[in-house]
Design brief:
about 150 residues; Beta-lactamase Inhibitory Protein, Chain:B, domain 1; 2 domains; 4-stranded antiparallel beta sheet
C-alpha cells in the first residue's frame, strides 16, 4: 500500500529527488551521468503519462458513472487511492455529485441493480466512500409487472 503523504510534501519531494538524482549523477559520472539520469527521468514521466492515457481511453468507451458491480468496487477501495486509480478500477468516469471546484470532490458510480458507491476525494485522494443499496421492497416493486 502506498504511503500517504501530504500534498505539499508530494509537490516538493519529487522535484527535489529529481534534482538530487541529476546532481549525484553529475558528481559520479560527469555529463554522461547527467544524460543518463535525465533519460531515466523522461522515461519515468512517459510511462506515467502513457498509463494515464490508457486509463482515460478505457473510460471513454464506457457510460459515465457505470460500474459492473458496486459491491465489488466497494470491497476494492482503500483510503488514499488516487482518482486515477479509482477510474482504472471502474473503467468509467464517475458522475459528479458535488459542487465543481470545491473540496471534497464527490463522484458516484452505479451498477445495474441501482447500488451506488459514493466516493469523496480530498486533493485527489480518496478519503471515504459509502455503498448505498436499494431496499428489497424497491427491488420487488421495480421487477413487478404493471
Amino acid at each position: 500500500m502506498p504511503i500517504a503523504l501530504s500534498p505539499l510534501v508530494q509537490k516538493v519531494a519529487a522535484p527535489l529527488a529529481a534534482v538530487a538524482l541529476v546532481a549525484l549523477a553529475y558528481r559520479s559520472y560527469s555529463w554522461p551521468g547527467v544524460a543518463a539520469a535525465l533519460g531515466a527521468l523522461v522515461m519515468w514521466m512517459l510511462l506515467h503519462f502513457t498509463r494515464m492515457l490508457q486509463v482515460m481511453q478505457r473510460a471513454a468507451h464506457r457510460p459515465k458513472g457505470y460500474v459492473d458491480s458496486a459491491v465489488m468496487l466497494n470491497a476494492k477501495l482503500r483510503a488514499g487511492m488516487t482518482l486515477l486509480h479509482v477510474v482504472a478500477l471502474t473503467r468509467a468516469l464517475g458522475t459528479s455529485a458535488g459542487e465543481p471546484g470545491e473540496q471534497p470532490e464527490v463522484f458516484c458510480w452505479s451498477d445495474g441493480s441501482q447500488s451506488t458507491v459514493r466516493c469523496e476525494f480530498f486533493s485527489g485522494r480518496l478519503k471515504n466512500w459509502t455503498l448505498v443499496r436499494p431496499s428489497a421492497e424497491e427491488s420487488l416493486n421495480e421487477n413487478a409487472a404493471p
